[in-house]
Amino acid sequence: MNMTSLDNTLPAPRLGEPYLLTPGPLTTSYAVKEAMLRDWGSWDDDFRAMTAELRTRLLAMLGKGGDDFDCVPMQGSGTFSVEAMLCSFVPRDGKVLVLANGAYGQRTAQTLAYLGRDHVVLDKGDYLPPRGVEVAQILADDPEITHVVAIHCETSSGILNPVEEISEATYAAGRKLLVDSMSAFGALPLEVAQVRYEALVSSANKCIEGVPGFGFIIARKSELELAKGNSNSMSLDVHAQWATMNKTGQWRFTPPTHVVAAFLVALRAHEAEGGVAGRGARYTRNRDVMVAGMRELGFETLLKDRWLSPIIVTFFCPADPKFVFADFYALMKAKGFIIYPGKLTVVDSFRVGCIGQMDEHVMRRVTAAAKETLEEMGVKSATPPSRALEERAKLAA
Ligand SMILES: *Cc1c(COP(=O)(O)O)cnc(C)c1O
């Protein structure tokens, strides 16, 4: 299968398989899935070379200055890697400022509570962005804070948080930044020459378009050295995984061999597509085409354009009483598209992902399917309730 032919339509999922308009697991290419049809010995040279290639390719995405960083893959879903980053880089007597505006920020705070790390939360609610000035103020008021954790794209609303200004405020106050770039890394630039941070995490099944099974921590080498002895989890100790991997080329415990093999195929396709810039451009086009089509039907986005990420977009449910999300979901699925329920607490919403093996042609089919579905449901207009628009008005331009 030719992975580089993105100028026309991407290969559709196999017959009967719906597109996953979800932020990972997502629709992967046939070549990625096919790579899993053989077995590898975890200690064998062939597999060790695969691990080395994976680490090198991920580091290359940091751009200039990436030599100061190293990449440590970690078994488990993305959350395991977030937890590994937190318990390894935050010393036991450290204190964290968590910038939360959705479920993943909340999960980071919960993880720190489990780990017994002191922390405070700047909770911006469902979707308002944490701003640099707010971070500066909190850090000035509390000299005990050692680390700031930011969520790059908060996948629960799809907001693209302003990591650059958060980073500037953090380092101006002499503290350290850790970034959950789970749903953004590989499609949105996080080059070390542009944004300063000590470590980031992401996983196999988001913008690199692999299958689920591991995550990875990319951290400054000096921070990796300092991490020795910090972790109060044995299996999630990033320093130990790093030291073993550098010494033996192996993972400490059974690696997800097939997932790694699939990920390498995904990484090569990522490069062939033009790396982070190419991947980001396709997702941006996906978003623009999909959002324009949905707006034509009367749907409104939760976020104003400047905060919309090319990863996933939240729409308000229409005010029309004939609109029932469960029915909308089922009818969209019958047309080959799996959408995602919303996570807002104030008003009803749903989400449509822009990532995975999909292009603008697929997105046009998505909005055509939405139009047809509204007709089937007897919904005349997709306009949201006025309460939703009042809610959105709280968001600065
Ligand atoms: C997907 C995601 C995670 C990790 O979730 P898992 O279900 O453990 O893979 C963490 N943070 C963000 C922002 C995410 O999008």
From TrEMBL:
Record GO terms (molecular function): 2-aminoethylphosphonate-pyruvate transaminase activity
Keyword Transcription part of the UniProt annotation: no
Domain of life: Bacteria
Catalytic activity: (2-aminoethyl)phosphonate + pyruvate = phosphonoacetaldehyde + L-alanine
EC number(s) per entry: 2.6.1.37
Biased composition (Basic and acidic residues): 388-397
Top class in the EC scheme: transferase
KW Chaperone (keyword) present: no
Gene Ontology BP annotations: organic phosphonate catabolic process
Keywords of this entry: Aminotransferase, Pyridoxal phosphate, Pyruvate, Transferase
Transmembrane segments: none
InterPro entries linked to this entry: Aminotrans_V_dom, NH2EtPonate_pyrv_transaminase, PyrdxlP-dep_Trfase, PyrdxlP-dep_Trfase_major, PyrdxlP-dep_Trfase_small, SP_NH2Trfase/AEP_transaminase
Region (Disordered): 377-397
Cofactor: pyridoxal 5'-phosphate
Annotated binding of substrate, by residue: R351
Domain Aminotransferase class V intervals: 121-303
Subunit note: Homodimer.
Family as reported in the entry's similarity comment: Belongs to the class-V pyridoxal-phosphate-dependent aminotransferase family. PhnW subfamily.
Function in brief: Involved in phosphonate degradation.
Identification of the protein by name: 2-aminoethylphosphonate--pyruvate transaminase
Organism per entry: Parasedimentitalea marina
